[in-house]
Specification:
elongated, DNA-binding protein, single chain, Beta-Lactamase, alpha+beta, 2 domains, 434 Repressor (Amino-terminal Domain), five-stranded antiparallel beta sheet, Lambda_DNA-bd_dom_sf, 243 residues
């Protein structure tokens, strides 16, 4: 099982067995033996290969478990005591940014927290919950999609971010399922997903119309440095600024 996972991630990274061997400082023959199941890796070897493959922390834990070892990185829920510091830091950022919108997102664009400005912009009318997903709000028919004046541009930009996320985290990740859900929505097939758009733009504006009032925003994405927890590594804070 671990051999198949190694092969899948190596191919996802566009690496040959020799590429991986050189990066992990092992022989290509050993990589071949590991992928075929003829050899079993040590925990240290799994960590070296995962590092060479630039695997996210959650996927590194999965590779260790597949090889018969315990995970080494935390994998805590957003509401767990272990995430209290991250929640507190995120709360400071969201509170300081109000009344401009700000959201805390996980890797699959689930909304973990949102300030009052974000909830007013989204029109959700209730505290953010894991069931609220930014991709679904933008791509699925509803008030948020209807309110996006430049929906085509925003959808293309968000699809680019999802594709990059799937490249990093793998097609079997929760983000992969979210992206497939977005691709199935009406109008997405006509977006020209393979085309280069917005050339020459430094910032992509988000133009939103709510109740006949049009507002323009640009966004920044913040992440936490040097995390040792899978969820902490995945979290981003999306802040909207008046354009």
């Amino acid at each position: 099982m671990v051999g198949g996972m190694l092969k899948q991630w190596r191919r996802l990274r566009g690496m040959s067995q020799l590429d991986l061997a050189l990066s992990a400082e092992v022989s290509s023959r050993h990589v071949s033996f590991l992928e075929s199941g003829r050899a079993r890796p040590s925990a240290e070897m799994v960590r070296r290969l995962a590092e060479a493959l630039a695997m996210p922390l959650r996927e590194r834990n999965g590779l260790l478990v597949a090889a018969g070892f315990a995970p080494v990185f935390g994998d805590n829920d957003w509401t767990s005591p272990q995430m209290a510091e991250i929640r507190r830091a995120a709360g400071i950022i969201l509170g300081a940014h109000d009344p401009s919108p700000a959201l805390v997102l996980d890797a699959a664009f689930n909304v973990l927290e949102a300030n009052s400005g974000a909830m007013a912009l989204l029109g959700a009318g209730a505290p953010a919950a894991p069931s609220l997903n930014l991709v679904d709000l933008v791509f699925c028919p509803g008030p948020v999609r209807d309110g996006l004046v430049n929906w085509d541009e925003v959808a293309l930009y968000l699809m680019h971010r999802m594709r990059e996320g799937v490249r990093i985290r793998g097609p079997q990740s929760p983000l992969g399922a979210v992206m497939q859900r977005a691709l199935a929505q009406p109008g997405v097939s006509q977006l020209g997903l393979g085309a280069h758009t917005n050339q020459g733009l430094v910032l992509l504006p988000v133009v939103f119309n709510a109740g006949g009032v049009e507002t323009r925003w640009f966004t920044t994405v913040t992440s936490f440095g040097a995390p040792q927890d899978a969820l902490a590594e995945e979290i981003t804070i999306e802040q909207f600024y008046p354009a």
